[in-house]
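In this section we walk through a basic example: taking a raw amino acid sequence and producing a predicted 3D structure, encoded as discrete structure tokens. The instruction is simple. Fold the sequence below.
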Amino acid sequence: MSAVDVTIGDETFYSLNDWSVLGDSTPLIAGDMTGGAGTVSFQLPETLTSKYLQGRPCTLKDAEMGETTGFLRLGGGNGVNATITGYSNIAKLNVSRTVPPANSTLRAYLLYLLGLCGVTTNIAIADTLASKSVRYIGWEGNVLDHLKDLCMAHDMELALIGDTYVFRPACRTIISTRSFADWTWTSSENQLTQNVEVAWYNTSAPASQLIYPAGGWREDVEVFQVAAGEVATYEIDLKPEDGDESSIGMSALTVQQPVCVGSVDRGHNSSSVYSVSGKDNFPIKPAQWAAGGGSLSVEMLDAGSKLRVTITGSSESEYGPYQISMPADSDDYSSLRIYGVGLRYKRGTLRMQTGLSADRASQESTPIVDTPFLNNYEQAWRAASGMLSQHSSATYTVQGTLGQIEVLQHTPTTYFGGTGVEGNPEQHVFGNLEGSLFVAEGLVYRIRSVTYTPAGGTFTAEQCMDGAAQAYALEQVTGSATMTAAQWNAFHSNGLTAGEYSSDPLKGHTL
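The resulting token sequence is shown next.
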């Protein structure tokens, strides 16, 4: 590696010798939120403007590594040189947003999410991913964290190549261990559990329908009440009942404001209405309710997963407290119906045993992984399987120093429809080395983090627990995704068994 050129706004500083770039890859295992946005740091001659560079865009370019982009945050100086730090442009996605339900292609959904963060250009999505159909409930939270979940669900990764946000199939780049000047390994059993658990959401297409009560009136629907001349608020949770996989949830896109009417049948499901009864259990006419200042309004909360109902009671105290109900021969029943456009769904859970006893793993189960992006049993099963590998045995981490990068296989540029994205780490290291696979002594590893400096690069890799990625890496290295006993023995000439393959990193084959 060499000196770099750094452009800040319209000004370029040439041949800076003190710099660093940290790049991370997005995770593949459900529940893993590691992998930050990455950072940049460099030293340049101090000027009067050095103190005021916060927020300015920057581009760091190296003749060997390629280029990466970000924005500046903090700095310090001694009157001669200023040290400036900043974040990768991926950090622009590290913001909280409210996202409504979606029924679109994966490409359209990704563009929408990035657009919410102010990113509308320089986005490349692999053709093999772009046309996938997706249907998600609404959510509220950190966009980058949710993108990590989305990447996991679709076996893809997010990378920054130059100034382009790239979404590509994960684990398609394989490098040789001859790319490393040296490396060491460590093992850990910190995550052993007896079970792993994930949730998944069986969603229907958004449609005009009854939002509340979801699925239609039931006997257990609460009857709301308000005192005369007072205001009462109620929050309605539209999520399905925990532990009941037959319970219906609703993710609302829009709601119609309810209209007060004289009566509401139990089975009414075609418009937003409500009726009112007084303390004497007799109906209150809509005109009488309105004349006394009575009203009811609805507001969507938490990306359509909740509703807030605000009721103002009529000032006619002789009839209060008022109920939003219809009198019936037995008990009154709730008359509130809220109609709108929403995505109907059911929530399921999947638990897998790791096979470990309580003596071996004191933790009974992982926290349940609950992401809106697992939409069927197959996806949930694959996510749980990846967790199973991570939580049932020792996992291995490799750290080392980079040498001359030698690529065995990389993401073809044709994946990106002529956008010019370079996916070969030999041609453009920044953003491409992160997420690469390599086979070392019988195990498949994935690079999770790389730190680049003028003195060279260092990396951290984790044992890859994704079954499809393991098979792909071994297929590229050995020529076959499956092996006979004889082929296995030939590949692991020192006699490594299949069981030992998953538990002993000091045996096997290195490429």
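Looking at the output, two observations stand out. The longest strand covers residues 338-353. The radius of gyration is 29 Å. In the next section we compare this with other chains.
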